[in-house]
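Why run this: before we spend reagent on co-expression, it is cheaper to look at a predicted model of the complex and decide which construct boundaries make sense. The entries below are exactly what would go into the expression plan.
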Amino acid sequence: MAMSREEIYEQVKEALVDALGLDDEDITPEATLMGDLGAESIDFLDIVFRLEKAFNIKVPREELFPAEGVLNNPEYVSGGKVTEKGLAELRAKMPHTDLSEFEADPDVNKIADLFTVQAIVNFIESKVNG
Amino acid sequence: MRWIWIDKFLEFESGRRAVALKNVTLAEDHLHDHFPGFPIMPECLMIEAMAQTAGILVGESRRFEEKVILAKIKKAAFYHYVRPGDTLTLHAEIESIAPEAASTVGEIRRGDELIAQISLMFSHVDKNLAGKKFPEENFVFTDMFHSLLTGFVETHPETERLR
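The model came back. Tokens follow.
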């Protein structure tokens, strides 16, 4: 059965509140996971597990958080910037994320800002409602 | 020497759940300082005992090929003091497991009485290093940990090699 975007958002919010020890009001669609919500690498796996349980789906970590694979590939990063090739890879792997701002200044340090609550909701929506 | 915080396993279902037992005794030095005249088991050591119970469960499910490291305490709630003479049982279950990590839920009980609820995340550390290198040998699962499982699981050729 298709889920509404609000229903998905509420469950994503609950997973984030539990995984990161936050209050409901800390979570906004625009909040970035690392910058605003303080998530660390192990938290991403915690979040993945919670989402799998909440939505009864399989969430491969590299699908939801593919940036690691890109950052570790020397072809995709040069001089602290993500290369054109790397950007193409990100676009292909993160169809649920708006990359337009990042593409203007693809500083690797800003890659963390791509992971927003919104991006997770988009990802889950594509999985659940296919 | 490793500080082992469980005495033996009572039940072990590979990849699913395990129950370990810990006898608390005044022969444990630290109880004389925690606290003088009022010895109680430190809560952090209850977490360690659960981490060992659940960590062995997680490690065994991948035949001890992964270095399983405690990465996150998701929940730790304590309801009663634990005193010398108490026998604790540690009940751990694997909730989720992936190539990079596992999450477990667990309870510590004294008889039927709930003492603590402890949920943990473990990292399979070699899969989470972004290219950094750790020693080849599995420094997590030492002989003492393996010997705790004697009689519960068949010895895998891989674990035999690690000994």
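Chain A has seven helices and two strands. Chain A has a mean pLDDT of 90. Bring this page to Monday's planning discussion.
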